[in-house]
Each structure stands twice: as C-alpha cells, then as structure tokens.
Amino acid sequence: MAKRLLRTLAGEAVWPPPIWLMRQAGRYLPEYRAVRAGVPDFVSLCTTPAQAAEVTLQPLRRFGMDAAILFSDILILPWALGQGLRFAEGEGPVLPPIRDAAGLAALDPGRLPQAIAAVLETIERVRAAVGEAALIGFAGAPFTVACYMVEGKGAKEFPAVRLLAWRDPALFARLMELLTETTIAYLSAQIAAGAEAVMLFDSWAGLLPPRQFRDFVIAPAARIVAALRTRHPQVPVIGFPRLAGLLLGEYAARTGVQGLGLDTAADPARARAMVPPAMALQGNLDPLALLAGNPAQAAETAAILAAMRGTPFVFNLGHGILPETPPDHVASLVRQVQGA
Amino acid sequence: MAKRLLRTLAGEAVWPPPIWLMRQAGRYLPEYRAVRAGVPDFVSLCTTPAQAAEVTLQPLRRFGMDAAILFSDILILPWALGQGLRFAEGEGPVLPPIRDAAGLAALDPGRLPQAIAAVLETIERVRAAVGEAALIGFAGAPFTVACYMVEGKGAKEFPAVRLLAWRDPALFARLMELLTETTIAYLSAQIAAGAEAVMLFDSWAGLLPPRQFRDFVIAPAARIVAALRTRHPQVPVIGFPRLAGLLLGEYAARTGVQGLGLDTAADPARARAMVPPAMALQGNLDPLALLAGNPAQAAETAAILAAMRGTPFVFNLGHGILPETPPDHVASLVRQVQGA
After folding, report:
1. Residue A148 appears among annotated catalytic residues
2. CATH number of the domain at B4-338, out of 3.40.640.10, 3.20.20.210, 3.40.250.10, 1.10.20.10?
3. Is A4 a catalytic residue?
C-alpha cells in the first residue's frame, strides 16, 4: 500500500489529508538549533549528510509528519555550479552577483555531480529511515534561483534580475537555459538517490508580468516536468508558483505537475475549481496564523479542511514556517488535521 | 464634453486610451528634484500647497498626461490623526508603531479637518490649473495604511500587522473601523475641494489569506465606495488591490468601484474577462520595462494596448514609476499610447 502522500499526489482523496510543512526542519525546533550550533555555517549543514539527514528527520519524530523534505536550500544549485554562497547571520544568502556574460561563463555544470554528492548521500540516509512517511526532494525553479544569482542577495522586488531580463533577453535566456537543464539533472539525481516526489519552488514567480510568467515560470517548469517524467514516470512533481494569482490555472494546465502548492493568498476553493479534479492541491495555512496560535490557527485550519474535503489534498502552510513559531502550535495543528 | 479619463471611468471605450502613471510626480523628474531641494522634508512638500501643486502639475506640462494625481502620500492620513511620521532618506517612512489599545487611543480623528487643510488647498490650486486633464485624489486603503501604522516602517511581509490581526482581532477591527471612517471623510473632503475621481491604493492587499482579504480589503473598500457614492454620486472610485490574484474578480464585483487598477502581474485579458464590461481597467506596464526602455517597453506597451483595445481602459504602470527612470522613456511611452 503506497504512502499517504504519494496516494494523494496520484489523485486519491486520502482523508484525513497528509500533512507536512514548508521549512518544517528549521530554527523553530530546539533540536535543530542544537545540531546547527555544531556546524560552522549553514552551507556546511546542507552538505554534511549525517547532520542534514538528522535535521530532515527531526520533525517526523516530533510530530509524525507524512513527509520529510530534504534539508537543503534552493541556492545549493548555484553553489554547486561554482557561484560563491554564504549565509550572513540574520541577513540571508549572499552571492557574488552575475550580471554579464563573463559571470555566466564562470558557472560550470561539470562541477555538479561532485558538488551534489553530499546531498544525494543525505537523501539515501533519510530514505532508509523515513518509514511510512514519504521523502520529498526539491529544487528552486529557474526564475527564483536566477533572482538570487543576479541580485546577489534577497530583495523585496528583485529589480536586478527583472531589469536584466528586459535589457539583455539573450543573456537572461542563456541563464534560464542553464538553470533549467541543471535543475533537471539535479532533481533526476535526487530521485535516483531515493526521493519519492520532488517539489519545484518558484517563490518569486508572482513578480513577473504575464508574458514573462509564461516564458520564465510556466515554460521551464513544463520542460522540467516532461524531462523528469521521461526518466522517472512514477515520481510526482509538486509545483509551487508563489503568487501566481490569475495565472495559477494556466500553470496547472500547462506544466504537467501532479501537485500544486497554494500560497497563503490563494483561495483553496477557487483554486480547486480551476485545476483538473485529479490534481492534488497543497497548502495553505498562513504561517502567521500558526505563529499566533489558537483560536486563529484552529479556525483557519478548519476553513481550509472544509474547502478541500473530498479532494486530493496535502495540508501545508502557504509559505515557510517562521522561526518564532512555538513547536506546540505545530503539534496542535497536526492533531487537528489528523482528526479531520 | 467630459474629460477623457472621466468618460473612460464612466464606461466608454475612449481610444487612444487616457494615460497617467502612478508616482508620475516624483524623483525621476529634475524639475521635481529642484522643488524638493527647496523644502526641509517630504512631509513639508506634501503639506505646502504651492509646492505640492507645482509638482502635481509638472508631469502634465512635460508629457501631456490625461490626469494629475494629487501629490501626497498614503501616510498623510495617520499623520493627520496624530501619529508621528518622517521619511528617512533612502529608507522610506518611519512612524512610532501602534501595537496596543493605548496607541490606538492616542489617534485623534478630531485633528483631521485642520490637518488636511493644506492638502485641500493643494487640490483647489491644481484643479484651477489642470485644464483638460482630470484631477485624481487618493488615499491608502485601510489595510495598507494599517500595515505601516502597526509595523512602523516599510517591510517585506508586514508581519506585525498580520500578527496583530490574528492575535487581537478586536483591536485590529477598531483600527480598521477608524481608518475606514476617516478615509471616507478624507476622500469626501478631497472631492469637495475639487478632485474629479479618487483612487484607493491597497498596495499590500495580496499579503492576506482569502478570508482576511474579504474582511480587510473588500469590505472596507465597499463601505468607502458606498459612502462616497451617497455623498458624491458623480465621482468615480478606482480601486487598486495590488496582488489580489484569484480574488480580483470578487473585489471588482463586491466593492462597487468604477475603475480597477491592475498590478504588474495581472493578465489584462484575463482580468477583462472577469469584471463587468463597463468597468474601466487601469494598468499595467512593468515599471522595470519602462526603466529598461526600448525595445522591451514598446513591445510590452503594444501587448497591453492590443489586449485592451475596444474596452474602457486607462493606460498606467502596474506599480509606481522608479526614480531611476529616464524621462525620455516616459515621453516615448506617452507618444506610443497617444498614437494607438
């Protein structure tokens, strides 16, 4: 009998729905902070299999989640291609920004197999230990990864990458091509190592005007999904085009994803009405409602469950869990969903 | 014969469409920077009628825009209610944050008539000088204004206000009530002083989960529109619920606005299909495409015009013009739209 998450992604209305949370392995857990304190920096944690596997498994042990998601970061891909990466305390990622052909030429896809070996070993370790939970691999989608590669850091609106796309479409297209191809290779290797589903995070998709959304969000996702399906036909892909807004249905119809992540702002019932009935939806409790706790958390959770009952659905947040979240709130959420 | 913008907002498919740009009076114009250099700070510029009227009119003189929008700021309302406000150079607005009942109680609606007198005088001066262009007044929508009042500054996701809404719904409801009522009074006074249309900016509407979007975005906008229609039935309201996404149609149907501003991410053709045929749409060129200039700017402009031809439409940006934008790009845009 297949795992609950995988049955859901195959189109079955499993109920109560499986649950896992974006960034469920992270700073809100004391056992995570203990492991983190023992490694020199965040990139080391992502690339040391014993520790990365340990933190991946922590939320399963504590809460009984239905899925583990590989502990890693979407910027491990550019790091593996040779772009420098560090995480400044309290500031997020810092990379030497790529703004021209020379910067792009310095990236080396040939480094990928060696550079991701530790990630693949993490996956092997976790897969051996997940039991009835499913193991999800992931990558950033090309546009979102490009946001950080070109900006060189997090930003409110990522003007540098969007300006590059307008000013030098040929260079930007080459960057997107490189990211699309290496993302296929990266996710394919994760699946070969043991990932049972993969998720494509396009956190900044909603910044784009509609024509660019089609070119830089939908088209690369469709290529990635098609390539993975050829190589690994049994492994579902969850797409997460955050803030896709009016184009959510178009993303669902044209990319071929089996699962669709809903961001905090998406109305679940409206989303349900615009995607094929067998498509699994995943989401979308406001992380701030979870931080606030009851009664807000319970009321919002009940509303989402009511809207999704009887359909293939994976309970999750609409964005990553916040570091300030009390673990007790998560335990209460899991109980509520499991009792649905 | 009514002004082109007002005919469009009344549901007529005026063509070529009227054009104006959000933040068209601003730092990208050297004549603006010259006026700004002569006043001590940004709030002074907003509250000194001669200078505020001058910068309001500058883009009309230079580009022949079809509308002037009052030069002011959405935070002039909390400032008028007694919340401190200053604009830190390069950092944006700074206010002493309101987080509890005492902070809310310190706001004084009784200050409003006196505090906004200068804004109303600016409107009178501009109205006397706009000629065939229409004068648009504006306010921030209650949720977006509350974002800044509670956070105390600009932020990426405005966690403080969203957490307050979950943790203390009664206090948050009182803040929203105060802002809704004072916004009605403020916009009504602007209309009485000469504004021919008003716009309600809800820049951060897209942060909210769907049930809060209905309570904190749609419901207050509906109340504001209804109250203004009773007092000033001839004056149209343009709503701008930025990043409303899947809920854009619901906002259009339930608020009663005559015009609907589209953000950069909204697909104009999809938006058109989900609103009443007589509703004017306004938008939505990417400000970064305008900064980049041709050929990106011309191609995007042509695509928007093609999607909107034959319908009531106001050409605008999808977000405010960026300070780095060359004025020549704006001149080129206006020529293209006027030649449509």
Report:
1. yes
2. 3.20.20.210
3. no
